[in-house]
Amino acid sequence: MPVRLLLLALGTFAVGTDTMVMAGILGPIAEDLGVTVAAAGQLVTVFALGYALLAPPLAALTARWPRRRLLLTALAVFAAANALSALAPSYGTLLATRVLAAAGAALYTPTANAVATTLVAPERRGRALATVLGGMTVATALGVPLGTWIGRTDWRLTMWLVTALGAAALAGLALLLRDLPAPVAAPGLRDRLAPLRDRRVLGAASTTLLFFLAFQTVYIYLATAIAPATGGRADRLSLVLLVSGLASVAGSWLGGRLVDRVGVRRVLLTGSTVAALAFAALPWAGRSMPGALAYAVVTPLAGWAVSVALPHRLASLDPGGAQLLISLNSSALYLGTAAGGAVGSAAVALFGGRWFPLAAAVLALVAAATAHAGTRAGAGAVAGAGTPAGGGGAPSSSPAPAAVSAVSPAPVPAGSVRADRPEQ
Question: Using CB atoms within 10 A of its CB, is residue 178 exposed (0-12), middle (13-18) or buried (19+)?
Fold first, then answer.
C-alpha cells in the first residue's frame, strides 16, 4: 500500500478523532473552564456547524489551488487550531479555536479523498478511498477511546494528541506528496446547492439531518446518560466508547451488505427503529455497566448501518450527480451533529440526565417516518433507471463503496483533478 495513502489516512484519523473525542472529555473541560457540561457540549456543536457551513464555500474558493498546497494548508490550520485549543485560557477562546479547526478539517477531508484517487490506478480507486476514509472509522474505534483515556486527568493532553497527529501527517505529506495532477474546473457554490431544488433530494437530506440529530443528541452527552454505570470513572467511559467504536466498524460493514441484500428502504426503516428503541431503553440500560455496554453495541450497529444507506438513497436519485449529492448528505450529517449538541443540552436541562435520551427516541422515529415517506413505492425513481429509489443497493455509477460513501464529507468531487498535467 502506498505510504502516501497511509499519510492521507493519518490526516483523516486526526480529523475523525478531533470531531468525536470531545464527547468523552466534556466533564474535564467543564470543570476546568468553570462551565456546565451542557455548555461544554456546544464545542461539538460549533465544530460540526463550522464544518457544515464552511465546507461548500471553502471548496469553491480553493477549487483552483494546487492540491498539495491545499492539503498542507488545511493540515497546518487544523494542527495550529488544536494547539490553540490546548492553550485556550477561557471557554470563549476554546469555542473560537474549534471553528478554526473545523475550517481546516473542511478543507482537508474532501481534498484527501480527491487526491487519493490520483495516486493509484483507476481500478484501485475504490480501495484508495476506503483506505483514506478508513482513518475516520479507526478514529471512532481507537482514537476516541484513546483520547478520552488520555484526557481523563487533563483534557488539554487530548488536544495535544490531536495536534501531534495532524502535525505528523503534515510533515509526512510535505516530504512525500509531490507531482500531483492539477485541479480543473470544479462546481461552483450555486451548482453544489442546486440539487436541493428537487423535493426528493431535500427529503433524503432531511432524513440524514434528523437521524444524526437523534444520534448525536445522545452521543455527545453519553457520559451523562451512563454516569450511574461508570460512576464517573474515565476508564469505564473509555471502555464503553471503545466497544461503541468497534461496533461502529461492524455496523458500517454490515450496513453495506444489508443494503445490497435487502435494499435501502428496509435498512433505513429497521435501523432507525432499532436506534429509537435503544435510545428509549437507555434510561434503564445506563444504570449498569452490562446495560451500558449492550447499548454501546446495539446503537452503533444500527446507526452505522443507516449511515451507509443514507448516501445510497441520495446517490440513487441522480447517479450522474452522485458526488454532489453525497456532499449534500455530508453537510446534512454535520448540521445534524451541530443541532444535536444544542438539542441534547436542552433535553438534559428539561428532562434531566437520566431521561433526556427519550427525546432522541422521538427524533429517531421522526427520521424513520421521513424515510418511510421518501422511499415508499412511487416516491421517486432513480434518474435514468427503472428501479424505485427506495429499493435495492447502490447504482453501478455510485462513486465509492457503501462504507466509504457513508462517512465521506466530500464537497470536492473525486474526479475533479486531471492526470495529464502535474502541478507547478
Answer: exposed
